[in-house]
Amino acid sequence: MKNNDIKLIATDMDGTFLNDQHQYDQDLLRKVLASCKEKGIYFAAASGRALLSLKSLFKGFEDQMIFIAENGSVVEFHGEDLYEATMSKDFYLGVFEALKASPYADPNKLLLTGKKGSYVLETVDPDYLALSQHYNENIQKVKSLVDIQDEIFKLTTNFDAALVLEGEQWVTENIPGVKAMTTGFESIDIVLDYVDKGVAITALADKLGISMDQVMAFGDNLNDLHMMQVVGHPVAPENARPEILAIAETVIDHHATGSVLRYMEEIV
Length: 268
Description:
The protein is of the alpha/beta class. 32% of the residues lie in helices and 24% in strands. The strands form two sheets. The chain has an eight-stranded mixed sheet, with helices on both faces. Strands 8-7-6-9-11-10 form a six-stranded mixed sheet, sandwiched between helices.
């Protein structure tokens, strides 16, 4: 397939672009990006991961791509913030207090991400911390969230896998001003209620002078849903959730096979 109308390609990372080892074919990406540049196509990583984590993941490619990080809370291109939505300290402290009162949350399985780094309590669950280090850079332990001196984009927490959808719904219904999004089997991201990847990619396309019909997006999970709904060309790996597969224009091979990059190679 060749599509000369595509001007922006955005892809989710975990479960979509990356393989099971959270890696990708760097040589193939280099080839695809060169072709994108030649044809005037922008490439964006659209992830729930922190901005610092994405930059580390794509070290050496930073000047050739756009970063949509923190589930749409920030969009950065060539070191410039094109869009961002941060929480005030009073706001995220209030969210934390509300979470502690929920029947689902464990304060020791909670991480906040900001511009400078990520933050957990000193009492953090060791297993949760180890898992978080796969997706976040510069994780700092603090005695209290009051001690954080940073601009915060989102909170991430883990619920029991069997209850994660119930927990997500509880957060959205009981904590004013936020939206919860499932990002994995146990993990949810909590962002401002007007934030998601779909909002961010729409704002990005507007700044780039691109219509949504000229945008292709790859995604697999519920935090990709709005992004997949607003773009002209939604593409999903076969391992995607049923809700994502139902709206995909095209379904490609399992993410573990590197299918996103191989599909991009075909169309650019």
